[in-house]
Protein 1
Amino acid sequence: MPSRLRGLVVTAVLATVACLGLTSAPAMADAYTPITGEGSSWAANAIDDWRASVVNAGIKVNFAAAGSVAGLTGFAQGNSDDFAASDIPYGVKDTSPDPPGRAFAYIPDVAGGTALMYNLTVAGKRFTNLKLSGPTIAGIFAGSITRWNDPKIAAENPGVALPPLKVTPVVRSDGSGSTAQFSLWMAKQFGSVWKCGQISFFTQCGSYKATTHQAKSGDNGVAGFVAQAGNAGSIGYVEYSYALQSGFPVAKVLNKAGFYTLPTASNVAVALLKAKITMTPGPTYLTQNLDGVYVDPDPRNYPISSYSYFVVPTQLQNGFTNPKGKTLSAFVRYALCDGQQKAPTLGYSPLPINLVQAGLNQVKRIPGAETAAIDIKKCNNPTFSADGTNTLAKNALYPDLCDKSTAKAGCVYGTPSNGSKSASTGGQGDQNSVGAKPTGTGSTTTSTGSATTGGAGTPVVGGAAPGATTAGAASGAGAGAAAGAGAGAGTGSGGQVSILNPDGKTSCDPDTGQCTQLAASPAELPLDHVSAVSRWAVWLMIGLLLCLILAPPALVLSSRKAKS
Amino acid sequence: MRTTPWFLRSRRLRRVAAAALVVDLGLGVLFTALAVSAGAAETSSATASAASTGSSVTVRWVEDRASFDPDYVDATTPDPQDRNQPLFTDLEVTVSQTKDLTDQGLQVSWKGGRPSVGSGAGADFLQLMQCWAGPGASGPTPEQCQWGTPSGAVAAQTGTATSTRLLFEGDEADPKQDLGADRTHAQFGRDPEKLVPFWSVDDPEKKDLGWVNDAYNQPPYNSAQSNEVTYARTAADGTGQYIVNLQSALSSPYLGCGNPTLTRAGYSCWLVVVPRGEFNLNGARADTHDDSLPQNSQYVAGSPLSASAWQDRIQVRLSFTAIGASCRLGDNEIATAGSELVAAAFSSWQSALCSQGTTLGYSQVGDGQARSALQAGGDGSPGLTFMTDPIDPATTGDADIEYAPVSTSGLVVSYLIDKNYTGDTDNPDRGANGTLVTDLRLTPLLVAKLLTQSYRGDTPGNGQTSQVSKDNPVSIRTDPEFLALNPDFAYFYKSSAPDGLVVPFGDTDAAQAVWAWLRSDTATRRFLSGQTVGGVTINPAYRDLGLESDETLASFPKADGATFLPASAPKTAPEFGTLDMRPYASSFTDGARRTVTASSGSKTTWDVTKVPAQYVSDGSQTPGTRFEMAITTSQAASLYGLPVASLVSDRTDTGPGVAPTADAMTKELARRVATAAPGVYRVDPMKDVEGGYPLTMQTYAAINVCAAGTTELTAYARLLDYVAGGGQNPGTKLGQLPLGYAPLGAADKAQARSVAADLRAEIAKPRCPSHQATADPSPTSGPTTTPPTPTPPPTQAQPPLSGPTAPAVVQAPVAAPTAAAPGAVVDARALGITPVAQVSPAARYAVLAALLFALPCLVAGPTIVRAGRRSR
């Protein structure tokens, strides 16, 4: 009996201790002070998504997509902005305001492609396979190419009956980082056509004519104009997500490898492998030099790719407080980690690991930041891989031969430009233009490999897969099955494109069948997750309590019975 | 047999045992106390939730007046120093809801007030503010109120200091107001000024904000953040109403409303209404003031926080739903994406599921994007997306896509319109001047005219440069069809007109449904096709868009390409266009936000001070002249407390029309039709459903079963189980179905549960090759040679729609759980839905206390029994 009692006592004591631990960590909210920022409309669709996502963590972030220049200016001047979002840094000559008096740091927040969204009807149908080279684009926005049947456009789109319609370039009326990035690309690459250099106010460019151009406020305004059926012939530059929102097509842009590509998440990721990031500590730390992106020889490169940035305070100035810093750091940390998961769905491209790492270190400089919580190992980002390479870029599909600059009129999509890794018909084909009505005929596969859906436009990670589904000729003769894991994620086309297991944790090489754990595999549910643990603890408590109440009388009874 | 128990045998053990007993009992007492106090806090909130619908409160000004002003005796013997008091004796203020509040619009109405004088805040108006109060306090102090940061436009409508925290000195001084050291703010380089500081609830030591050490003396909010109502006007009949945008601790931590820690500690939140009469704080009549003084010198002057005004306040205690930080950042999110129609409900469900360890993420994208993202498959693509119309089964190939209904809501035309009447004595409603319109009725034809810029005033330059017919009315307010349905508008000032009809950018099934509804009406279809209907012709810019027939149109065009140069801009300036004067909202919810803030976002004001000069925002409309309309969701309209239009068939319709109540939505759904995808139904606007709301939207979750991993499928099954269970109980608590949604019917819940069961079956016994490949090799499933033809799961025949769910008005849902289908209860339990969310701190403390008390009994009990037996 005593030994049994001893056991019970020990159990009870342990239970009490456990219970104490439970109550000392009540499921109380971390209180977060709301913060306010303004800036880039290019990045606004991503920022709005993150803002909505952190609400249930008790975080309120106000953001106005007033444009990069307004964001930089507001952050520099007043007390109202706790952070800014901008596609360009401070102090770019004739482009952005001078660096502010307050201490600040740049943190890259998301990557994306500046897309050329257009509205064009050919032979009575919305045209969705427009191909444009840089000089032609520069010519359109400089106002030297004025008709859609211009020989320069026609030469790049052989066999297309382009109408003699007026070209209406739609530009930003406000101070815009996308205007700055777009004009920088044209100035550096096609300076003979584009004479305005880098500018953030398009209307200040000498080529701007109110009679030819349309100037609209924000990406929303530019996309809103192009998306009007009545505005046939218009073409504007916006972040890809705005084209996805409205279901309008974007032009394929010629890269240095001679391929016309779309601003998909993977093409942008490939392109930005060549971005040079300033790693010297100082006021320009982490800013981008995109010269290498423009001339990248990779056939998958989308040349007008860039990063957008948060500008955050690093000192308690202009009304910034430690509680606000706590909020801002938690928000930016979410954006850099889990927030990146959502980038492809929205029409952006996730940041690579080196920029996330550098960004997280910058987050630690925000006054009031909870630095203990910042850990790249807990960062859940789809580009991370075990060997440090960018998974998204590594697995990006190669363009179709019909998207090569030398392709003839009437080229039939379906021949990959690179045999070992190919987009087959879906990836970059004619039918995948954003928003084209689904014309897919369903999968023709008889593959034993995978039952993927209808060939799924771009089988790359992320499904920025443009609007339509196309017939996915998943002809893979069981390679997917051979590779085993991972078949579910790719198209199964030759088993070449499987990237991630459906569990999202492992990456498998379809050639070797080798699977590796991603560095950023989601952490196990931490034990200190109050709610999950307490659910069981509470039931355990109730059980123990019942034992404690019922056991003594039962014991006594039984011992009495034994005696009698 | 030895009687001494083992733990008393040695001296040391005895000591230890004694100490343990003391500690144990001590802790037991402590936790009992905690349990009792926490329990007390909960009881109050429990009562609150039970009485959610009935939590409206009416307070008469004369009630308890003496407790605010010791010099007040009764209505006939008011405070001799306060000459305003006789003006307030009949005032009574009603607050529509005082329990379970959240970040929402709150309707405040009153009667028995003195009609407001002049324009703006001349005299006889109310000032409203949200405040906090400390533990045990009977109400807030002036320092605890969010006040004093009006926008420039609003401040310009008030008398001196009336919208501020400043206190008068000298002749104007309030005789009852203390102007001591804690009301004096000295700032370097400036004369010390007298004002009422703001104290934050989250800064009790006043270290950071408000007073002692704050160099700027800035309150932690500004005009964009504050929800203060600088002035609310009273109509000639003595009534008035205002929608106050309440703020939880999430938006305003410095007020702390709904912060569970503060609530437990006894802090409270309040709505304070300060009526202002015709006399200033020093007792002088405002309008006798020397009018050689600057602007508004004859307006009532002085801060409502000053003692003589403050003592006339009415205060109503508000109880907020505990704000959640139910989801932890950094937990791995399982992705979903899709229609905005589900966003608010998802957010609520997410918080309930987070607390059970399932963290789901959500990205708001258009329905079309949701459909293509689902088909894309692969990592990074969500395996579950939300949409109204299904994916065309002809394009899905072998993919196994399952659909589960998740929410029912509606598209509404919400509005914020101040009655802005001329002095016309024929107007039977003139007494209500300055109050809100709440009974707007619209026809499909009127909505079509708004959406097609067919009113001249909705085009750049009011039709001067546009091709719109010169015979068309200038605005909806002058349209005879509109006036036939809403006759009071004939007495509005001529210039009154809305900033068009605010609509969002992008392709959505919701927009598609609006056009389908417009086409379902014969007259509207004729109008859209270009015929003149009732003297109005469609704007030619819209005539060729095929609006009368194009069923694929899923956006709101803004097609008029006319531009205009305003008189204020130089000849060299660019002209503005439709998108500048009638810009898109970024979402339906953003449209509701623009309506409630009376700020459509139009940019037609040429600002030469900008570098370079550019068009800037025209700013918010001022109270008294607000006139905004937007197409938004029933949820967003409910959240912001906005009134919504009733829909009638045509101008001769004399009925009240159909409003988006839960009942009307449920009626409409009873007649829904099947789509090409099994299990998916949609509302057919061509079917005229008696009492049904035609813009009802049923939203589905679509799951690409084989493309999603088993981890995802598990989470999705949990989501659907919750959606079909507790997630349909209307209310404002986290986890409940937010206001503006109609609960799913029994058949829909059953369908959702059945899909959840399918997903679990797939995990247990995979059919998809992708899942078989990853599943552990089990002895029974040897190497299979049969081609794993993707077997579609058994498609469940849609059970006939059972009787409609209990009718409930959407604006005021029943908070008590609706009678759930029996299956739902079982399901919720099987899932373990309840434990955490509902095991309260009190219960936890109680368990602990009981345990501690039980421990010594356990040890001592048998000992005593034995000792007793021995002594026998």
Protein 2
Amino acid sequence: MTAVIFYISAATATVATAMVISSRNAVHALLHLIVSLLAIAVIFTLYGAPFAAALEVIVYAGAIMVLMIFVIMMLNQGDAAVDQEKAWLAPKNWYGPALLTAILLVQLLLLIFSGAEESAQRIHYIGPTEVGIALFSHYILAVELASMLLLAGLVGAFHLARHKRIETSEAPDAD
Amino acid sequence: MTVPIWITLLNIFGILAAAVLLAALLTWGERRLLGLWQDRPGPNRVGPFGLLQVVADMIKLFFKEDFVPRFADVPVFILAPAVVMATMLLSFAVLPISPTIGVIDLNIGLLFILAMSSMAVYSVILGGYASNNKYALLGGLRAAAQTVSYEVFMGLSLMGVVMLSGSFNLREIVSAQQDGWYLLPQFIGFVVFFIAGIAESHRLPFDLPEAEHELTAGFHTEYSGMKFGIFFVGEYLSVILISALITTLFLGGWLGPWLPPLVWFSLKTAFLVLLFILLRAALPRPRYDQLMQFGWKVMLPLSLLNLLVTAGALLWIG
């Protein structure tokens, strides 16, 4: 049962990701990316990490993708962008990436068949508590670094979006 | 965990049918209540008390032309209303309605509902995008900004409850309220969640994505027939969902003396739905920038403060 669900969601993720690359319309590509993320969330749940799955849906599929769609809608390029994308997806542009991914695929297959298949059967449940403990003990340095990075980003965004005090009557409501 | 299969099926289809029917009925209930508060009868012609108004509306919507504008992005245009319905109904699956009623007892139930509500944003955004219409696009943009920002406080305001009960499981959260509802210790969380809930379900006074005085109908300007109906029912579904969630998290869920659990749960939820409608009748709409400023400058600090105080108090008690 688990295997069947795994293969279905893995196939969904693969097909959706292929569609992300080959889709001409940016919004359609993002929708396929969301489907791919959801399929991966299903796999996470299947193998005992429902917390990671929920976070994947909330953060990646829910928040980051919304922001991307938001930006694309704001730019609203329409048909011109589709034509441009069509030109970029000409067959001759596929050779290089296809070669590189083929090398990766060969590596992956070699790894799989070289017998590195230990402990694939045991499903180990990881709940919110375990994730929290791991984050704030073993990975505390990474968490702190990420928080600094985010703070820098926040300060930067605040600086960019700061109101220049212009002496006009139409100031946004005082607070 | 040896529940007979027919009870599980009864749970699934019962909750599904009840949620959709109540959402449809709420369209009538809201109009009647608004009428009451505005000193007019409201819809009272079809059936007893106008109760069959829902049926009449539904027949009308089904027989309208299912119009898809030729400039629309057709697959996305059709997908958009389906998303809101699917995500809202999926959220009802983890709601514990009484000790025996409820579809699934998920360990991360609360996160699941948050995930579903963050997926529900797509319905509005995609509807606005796919309509290829200026009003719809503006409505979609507003919806995206509003929902993404209010989702932040929505999640943060719930973390106090999670800290107190020590679980994301909605059933355990309800059981943890045996000694007292979380309404009192988490009052700030309750207020923030309630306001964020209104913003999430795009209800008046926070219905800027579909403000009819400036955006025609916002993101669903181009929608007609049952596609519009689905958006409409989806909105009421989310009102019921938010009310039921507040009941579960802050008002002790099914807990209560004398009456059976199901009745308590329904009473509390109905009271909150009533509050939602009363707010619509009572409050004017803020301006869009006021809405965003209120969110980031009042709600976010409040919910962070609530988080800090709750964590500190828990540590103090030990």
